[in-house]
Every structure is written in structure tokens, then in C-alpha cells.
Specification:
The complex is a heterodimer of chains A (about 220) and B (about 850).
Chain A lengths: L3 E12 L2 E13 L4 E5 L6 H8 L7 E6 L2 E2 L5 H11 E4 L11 H11 L5 H11 L15 H14 L4 E5 L7 H18 L2 E6 L2 H5 L3 E6 L2 E7 L1
Parallel strand pairs in A: 3-8, 3-9, 6-7, 7-8
Antiparallel strand pairs in A: 1-2, 1-4, 4-5, 9-10
Chain B lengths: L1 H51 L1 H5 L3 E5 L14 E14 L4 E11 L9 E3 L3 H6 L4 E5 H6 L7 E4 L2 E11 L5 H6 L2 E5 L16 E7 L6 H5 L3 H6 L3 E4 H54 L4 H30 L3 H4 L14 H23 L24 H22 L2 H32 L6 H9 L7 H31 L8 E7 L3 H10 L4 E15 L2 E2 H6 L8 H5 L2 E5 L7 E6 L12 E5 H7 L6 E6 L2 E13 L10 E3 L10 E6 L4 H14 L4 E4 H40 L1 H13 L4 H39 L7 H27 L3 H6 L1
Helix pairs in contact in B: 1-8, 1-9, 1-11, 1-21, 8-11, 8-15, 8-21, 9-11, 11-12, 12-13, 13-15, 13-23, 14-23, 15-21, 15-23, 15-24, 21-24, 22-24, 23-24
The chains are: A alpha/beta (about 220), B alpha+beta (about 850).
Amino acid sequence: MGILSVQDVSKTYQSGNRKLTVLDQVTFDIQAGESIAIVGPSGSGKTTLLGLCAGLDTSSQGSISLNGQQMENLSEDQRAALRSQHVGFIFQNFQLLPTLTALENVMVPLELKRRKDASKKALELLEKVGLKDRATHYPSQLSGGEQQRVSIARAFANEPLVLFADEPTGNLDTETGEMIEDLIFNLNKEQGTTLILVTHDRELARRTDRIIQIKGGKIQEETHA
Amino acid sequence: MHNFSWTLKMAYRDFRKNRVKLFLFVSSIIIGIAALVGISSFGDNLTKDIDQQAKELLGADLVLENNQPIGDLSFDSLAVAQAAEVNFASMVVFPNTGDSRLTQVRALEGDFPFYGTLETIPEDAEGNFRSGGKKALVEKILMAQFNAEIGDSIKVGESTFVIVGELQKVPGQTGITATVAPAVYIPMDHLKETGLVQYGSRLNYAKYYKLADEAEVENLIKPFKEEWEEANLRSNTVEDRKRSTGRSFQNLTNFLSLVAFIALLLGSVGVASAVNVFVKEKMPSVAVLRCLGVKASQIFSIYLSQIVVMGLIGSALGAALGTLLQYILPQVFADFLPVEVSVQASWSAIGSGMLTGLMISVLFALLPMLKVRKVSPMATLRPNEGDTQLRKDPLRWVVMFLIPLFIFSFSLYLLKGWQESLGFTGFVLFAFGALWLVATGIMWLIRKFLPISLSYPLRQSLANLYRPNNQTISLIATIGLGTAMISTLFFIQNQLLDEARFADKEDQPNMLFFDIQTPQVASVKELLQERNLPILQEVPIVTMRLESINAVTKKINEDLPEEARKSRSLYNREFRVTYRDSLISSERLMAGELKPVKTPGDSIFVSFEQGYAERTGIKMGDALVFNVQGRLIKTYVGSMRDVKFNQVSTNFLVIFPEQVLDNAPKFHVLITKTKNDRESADIQASIVRQFPNISVISLGTIVETLEEILGKISFVIQFMAFFSIATGILVLISSLIISKYQRMKESLLLRTLGAGMPLVTKINTLEYFFLGSLAALSGILLSFLATSLLNQFVFQLPFRVALQEAIVVYLVITGLTILLGWLNGRNIMGKPPMEILRE
């Protein structure tokens, strides 16, 4: 079994009397260190799948195991603990905490892991993404690209086993987007992290080891690089 | 431990950027806490001062009183010094101007007060007064009313005295007492010459005792109590006075604390509403933290700890302000205080005020803050994800239960009785509920019936009221409740005065002459008829006491167990009774009938005022034996009447049938109707000149006194209601500042789309106008409801819509809201759109 195993997972929502199936019996395995892209049109269920894989939500049916732990058996707080230990996130709209400086944003996952050297390590990560001199700046004082670099530093801070990225370059211009992609793949390689990203961007998807094409809540196609 | 310290660290990090905003949230409670701490500290100091100045309150160690002359008593030998006083209501005349007024005449003998002094102008007037001669000390309010000066004369009954001093303060008396019954002190030696001591005069005799310093008063008087009881002597010691004064003021400060607590509750609604906005803004951050693996309880603690810190800061600021407030309070309550009140910080008041503020702000903040626990980490990917509705959250119901429980506990702490506390809690819940309903109802009506044909600025400004996070409902509730309190007071006060003024209607009497001796009746009637004044009522009055109730005498009653015992006051009081076989316009028969006596020997049926009978436990059919000047008359309770006491009329607790008291010694009251104030003044002057023992009350005097008293009372209540209004304004200011960014964005959008400054200003002004109008109207509607309930159940007046007063309140509140809105928005309006965009 891989680092992430998804078995017959379905997700349905009740909308009045109507039952809406967003994901329908999805199954796949991801090995440690592998990078995959989930692609598909809007409303195909890819973000839902990402949320379920990361333990942000629970499936209606089927099972998901992350690093050997069955998600459906865990409470929300236990899943939170699992995320803080093994998972990193990068979001389309960066999702930095606006009241924390860049450095403090990166420190949060380290502090949750009770790392004594949180500040030193966070500064090293900011240096890696080229923002050491902006450490004391608040998100509102940074550009979009800079905010995403801080977000990447935060995502890698707890040395996650799996990194989830939701349209990481969706809100950036092409040049900055490419720089961010390079950063993600370089750090991914450096740390041997498993990367799962959701994107519309075919070019970005092609840089991963495997592409899972999803449509209408079902896997349409899996292609290997 | 790590979790806790990390939570605090995160709270601090978040707090750094939010401190101004958070301070705005809790600022709403500052005024409520200030009022609470100020009043409690004032109460603490007052209790302490009453304790320290208790002897000055009474002026003696012991007072004995009766409405019969008090002869020598066996107790007299135990006293170090004695003084005597005879006091009664009587007209006095200022011969210089011919003006007259009903006053409290106090004929004094001896060195009373033994403790404290009669404060006079000039300072040596007391000594001068006591040095002998026909001298008088006159209350300052009388001197001012009649422009009298030291050295002028004052006529009491048939005797004239020289005014040697103006009384500033008498031990134990308050400004209100002086307003209702201003005192004139004359020497006892010259009382007889006034000719006012005769049958029918309602005299009160008092004996003041000074005892040895080491005397234990309570033990000393114990053996004499029975003897005094039998002689109908009422005793009053320093301890008694301390207890009763302390109790009255405890009640007063507790009542005022409740008013302050309402201001605090209003502030707390402001806190809840602002925290709601804060929490909504924080939802994305909460989702990110959840995503990063932070537990829901930890995130909740991060935000709760900030509220606790700001609650503490707000409470501390409120407590400091409240301590300063104490410097003003003795002036506000000056007319009600019998002692000098010291100003000192009361640590217990500060402590309990801060604790109350902290608890109430946290409790109210908890309601919106509980949502934080329900934020799904999926909201990072889909912002609308996750159910933060709290309907099914058991903790929400716990908080919903804790809030009324806290209000109940706090009122129980102040009121001591659980029924009163339940009543207060019910009132608070009702008031908030009613305002919420009114506000929501008005908003619903606007939305439902807003015509699409309205001009754009009107539609846009009305639509702005529904803008997310606008706090419209909570603003209406807070400002509305403050408005409701002030306007209820305003309406009731004006209505009472109007009622008194309107009593001067065509057929309603407006002048009352009392203490008329039987031989004087014919002459007084003649004098009235000479001036074409109608005699609307001629009422004979006989004084009597109750000897027994259903064969239970006063002595037997004392020996009965508590639950079977009748009120002592029934046996101790002197009843002033009239006799007639019909009801007058101010009376309504509630039970039985007025049964005339047809032949001598018939059973005599008396009629009781229903409320008094209920209070004292008198029932239909009870056999009562009255002692009429030594003659015992057996009667039965044959009817109950409801009496309206708010008319110029003679009203009686007990009425006898005709023919029973015809030959009893009596005095009379005549009631007439004058056409105007001039005529009232003329007839009053003639009557007082010819019959100095007759007292006159005119409706004009009643209205004047009522105006003065209501003025004093309403000043205090308005002062207290100010706290609620001020809290409402603070909530408004904080809400305007919180929504400033949103307003800025909207203005920017409008201006980018090409709207000119005048249009944007118009829309904003209209929005404030609607907000102020809704709050004021909700408050006014609620106050109409409160006024009509008070009128119906307390004052028994018909409800009248006080339209003029309502318009004034509406204009002031709406104007204030528009002004604050303008002040808040003035620096946005002038800026070019690009500058705002960059901000």
C-alpha cells in the first residue's frame, strides 16, 4: 500500500430532497515521493477529492488511508494532528494568516510540532524562497508572488510526507507562476515529499509523475509521465 | 502546557493587529461598568456615612411621638437632656406681600438637635432663635419663593414672628422633604398664641431625649416599650433610624445599580454584535489554522483569550471612570441625601464591577464566538464550505441559558427576592425581545413594501441597511432601548403634569379648605358665596381609632401568632372618617353596597377602600369597633370601594353611613372651584387672613410642587438613563468604525462608476437617517407600550399618545446618528478614489 490509498471513495451531498454525488467510487494509490496532478473541468470533483485526501473532510463511502492511518476512523481533532505531523498545503489564494508576519506564518507548523528552533528553521526556509529580508513583513505588505513563496515555505516547514497544492499558480502571472512551480518541484525533490496538486494548467500537470483526469466525479484516465 | 503557552503566543500575535478593533468592541461596556461601579461605590460610602452620622440623622438618642400631648413619663429621669416639639401643617402668611402657603410648623422647646446643628444663614441665627422672643427660622425654599429676607415678619396662625434665620439644613431632612413640606420653626412658648392648637388640628407631638454617652439605648428602653405601646407612643432610636434610612438607600442604590446594569447589558449586546463581525472576518484564518492542524478548542482559546483581555481592560477603564463618577453623584442625589457623603474608592465595588463586566462581556461574546469551533478546514478550498450554524450546538444552548441565569443571579444579589429578580430578568428579556421584534418587523416591512419606483439614493441607502455585518438590528436594539428608557420617563413626567393641569376642567374642583371648625363653616361658606364661588363639596371629618377587629383588641392581637395577627397600624393609626350614603365621582363600588341607617339601633355598615383593606387584611363582614372620642361604636364592613386618589377631592379609607356621627366632634373640609389663579390667590388670602387656622391647598400649588419633585426625581433618572443612551452611542460609533472600510469600498465603487460626491453623501446621509429613525421609532414604540402599561397599572391614567414629545425624541436621536455618521465618514469623502484604492 502506498503513502496515500484511496479505495472506492464517494462523496454525496444532500440538497433538499436531491442527492448530489460529487465523487463516485474513486480508487487510486500514491507511492511515497511520487508527484501527481489531478486535472479536470470545473465542478468535476477534483477539489473535493483533494480535501478528502488531506483529511479536511470525510467521505460518504469508501476508505482513505494516509501514511497507514485510516482517515474515516479518526475524529476531526485526530485528523488535525495527522495534518500537523505529515501534511503540507499550498493554496491558490495563499491563505496566509493576515495578523502574523511572514516569519510567524512559517513558524506555525513548526511550533505545532513543538520545535524549539522554530524561528531559526523558519528563517532558513524563508531564505530558501528568497524572502529572508521580508521576514517581519505582514502578508498585506507582500506581493502575490511573495505571499505564495511564504506559503510554500510554510508548507515545507514541517517536512511533510505529503504536500497538497490547490491551483498553486492560479492567482499569479505566468512569470511568477513559473518561478513558484520551480520552487515547489525543487523543494519537493530536495525533501522527497509526495506531491498531489490540483490544477487546470496542463503544462504544470505535465511536470508531475502521473496525471489523474477526473470528470463527473469519476476517474476518466490516468496517464504516467 | 506547551499548548497553553502556544495558544497565548498566537493570541498575542493576533491581538497585536486587532487591538484597536477589539478595544472598540469592548468599549461599549465601559460606560455600563462605570455606572455600576460609580453607583455601588456611592452606595458603599453612603452606608458607611449613614453609620457614622446616624446620631445626626435623628438629632437625639431617642424620639417618642404621638398625636396626643405627651405628658411626663417615667423614662424622663433617665435622660441627660430633653427637648419637645409640636409639629403640624398650617398656613403661614408673609405680611409684607400678603402671600400665604401651607407649611410644616415646628414649635420647638429645648436644645434639639442634640447631635448636628440647624444650619442657618446667618450662622448665629440658631442661638438668636433660642434666646427668646417671637422669632422664627424659615426654610430657604420658602424664603426664596416669597422673596423674604432676614428681619421680615411671618404670620403663623394669629401670631406674628420675626424671621431671624434662613434654614439651610436640618438634621435628617432632605431637599425633597423641604420641597413637599417646607418648615417654619417657632418657639414652643409662643405656640398657644397662634391659636392653632384646637380640636381637629392634626398635631404631632414629639419628645427628644439625649442619653448618657455610655448608655445602651436598646437595653435601656426595653422595659418601657409595653407602656409606650399602650399609650400609642411611637419610639425611634438611632439604630431604628439607621436601619430604616440604610434600608431605603440600599433599595435606592440597588435600583440604580439595576439601571446601570441595563446600560451594561446594552453594551454587551454591542459586544456580541461586534464580536460577530470580528468572527466572520476571522473565518478564513480559522480555516487555515484548522488546515495546519490546530485543534478547534485551541483556536477557540486563541480568540477567547483576546476577548478576556479586552474585557478586563474595558472593565478596568470602566471601573476607573466609575470611581471618578463618584465625585458627581453626591451632587446628583443632593436633594435625596440626609447625610454628607464622602468620596472614596470602594475596592469591593471596583472588584465586583470588573468581575461583572468581564463575565457579561465574555458570556455575550461567546455566542458568536462558538462558531469558530465549527469552521471546517475545507473552507480553505471552498470559502462557503462548512456549517457554522449553531442551532444544534449544545454549547450554544448552554450559553443561551447562562445569560439569563447571570442576569437573574445579578438581580437576585441586588434585590434579594427571587420573585423581583425573576420579574427584572423577565423585563430585560421582554424589552430586548420586543425591540428585536420591532426592529426586525420594521426592516421586514421596508424590504417587503419598498417601492421599486423610489429614487436611486433612497433605494441604495435602504438597501445598505441590509449590508452584511452592518449590525443594524443590534444598533436598533441598543439605541432603541436607551431611547425607550428616556422617552418613557419623559412621557410619564409630562403626562402626570398634564393630568394635574388638566384637572382644572370645567366641573372639577381646584381648591380645598381644611381644618375648618364647625362654628366657622357658615362664615367660610358665606365668604365663598360672596365671590360667586360654588361649594362643590362640604365634608365633615371625624377622627377615631379602631378598638377591636372581630373582638380582637390590640392587646390580644399582639399575643396572636404572626400569621393570625392583623397589621399593628390598624390599631395605632387615627382614622379620619366622613359620613355619607352615596359615592362621589372619584369612587367606584367593588363589593357590597353603602347601606344607610334607617332607624336607630340598625346595624352600622362602614365602607373600606379596597386596596387598604387588602393590605391590612380587612374583609367584608368583619366586625369593627371604633373608638370615637371615647364612645365605642360597633360596625360591620358592608362594602369595598375603589378610590381614585389623583383628584382634588377628599378621599377616605373608611366611610360611615349618615346619622351615626352627626353629634360627634368634627371639623370640615370645603371644596370649591375658582376661575383662575388670580381668583385662587385672592380667596386664599382672605380666608387665611380671617381664619388663620384654616389650611388651603390649591391645584396651582399642587402642580407647582409636583413639577419641582418630578423635576428632581427625573433629573436623577435621566442621569441614569444617560448611561444607556451613551452606551448606545458608543455601540453606534464602534459599529461605524468597524464598517468604515466596507463603506469606503462602497463609496469608491460608486465614485468609480461615476457617482458625484453629492450623490454619495446623499446616500450615506440617508442611510444614517434611516438607521437613526428606525432606532428612535423602535424605542418610541416600546416607550408608548411601557407608558400605557404604567398608566394603566400604576398611575391609573388614560393613555395619551405624547406626539409632541415623541417628535422631539425622534429628532434628537436621528440627528445625533446622522451627525456621528458624518463625523465618521468625513475623511473618506474628500479623498480621490485612487487614494482609497491604494489604501
